[in-house]
Amino acid sequence: MSAESGGTGRPSTGNDWAARELARPAVESAPLLLGALLTRRDAEGAVTVRITEVEAYEGARDPGSHAYRGPTPRTRPMFEAAGHVYVYRSYGIHLCLNLVCGHRGAAAGCLVRAGEVVEGEDLARRRRAAVRRPGTVEPRSRDLARGPGNLGLALGVRLEDSGRRVDEPPFALHPPAVPVARDLIVRGPRVGLALPGGAPAFDWRFSIAADPTVSRYTAHRSHRDADAE
Q1: Is 45 exposed, middle or buried (0-12, 13-18, 19+ CB in 10 A)?
Q2: Is the pLDDT of residue 229 over 60?
Q3: Looking at the whole model, is its pTM more than 0.90?
Q4: How far apart are CA 114 and CA 93, in angstroms?
Q5: Which residue range(s) make up the domain with 117?
Q6: By the 8 A CB rule, do 108 and 79 touch?
């Protein structure tokens, strides 16, 4: 069975690839998403990012997950089948994009934390400019989708996208042109989570080594306080 055909005798599509790779546990899907091309298209146009940083969340067994205590109206998309999108608002401002993984009910998923804008940079810049505070500098290309809030803004993600599928409009997800080599994948603790979800044991943040679009790691404040004591 070839990787190109998927055993069907025809070339593999982005939909085939997304369905297959997201059906795995999130901690297995996450590194496979590195280098993948994620597109969102709407009336303004299309923006595509090459994914460079993701975090895995494993549902009920993961104290860092929104699904840890079961479904709520907001988190219900996480309990859908692999390939659904879960969007939430962070700090009342930023919209963050997650891709549901695993079997229906697993409530696992990957937070897309950062990417390189490879299509639609002008549109991404306009979206960033619309919310930029007066007196602040225009972001460099590498910073347009650096961090989950910036990535959501660059793509034009909306709350109503939650519950949609990443392999159906307005989204598309395609495999990396060249898979990221294993020795170029960095693994470490997730960003900004309180204990226990932010503990080193949950080393479920994956990124491409030395890629300038990867966001800076910051521990939860309680971690820094504990380290100082």
Answers
A1: middle
A2: no
A3: no
A4: 17
A5: 14-211
A6: no
